[in-house]
Amino acid sequence: MASKGTAALQAMIEEATVDAYGDDEQLTGLFTMIEEHLAVPFTTTVLGVEVTVRKIDLTADTIVALCARGHHRQRIGLLDLPLPTPPPDGAGWIDAYRHWAER
């Protein structure tokens, strides 16, 4: 899936944040859309090691991917998570989150 254009990303952000006031509520709106639309689990490579993204979670100030490899677990900021090729279904919402975070 090719990266979405700016207008499409902005429309997605507006959909996710339509009733949100302030950054905290906007972040929650984006998290909700990512949680609803992103197909998990999926595998990706982090620092040369294959991991499985099991879940997406919301912290006080960011969205994180809960990654697993064997018995090891680690939270990785969704903005820092490299996506596989092809990306999982719903990854466009991660693009929208990245676009929102860069504003």
Automatic annotation (TrEMBL):
<protein>
    <recommendedName>
        <fullName>Calcium binding</fullName>
    </recommendedName>
</protein>
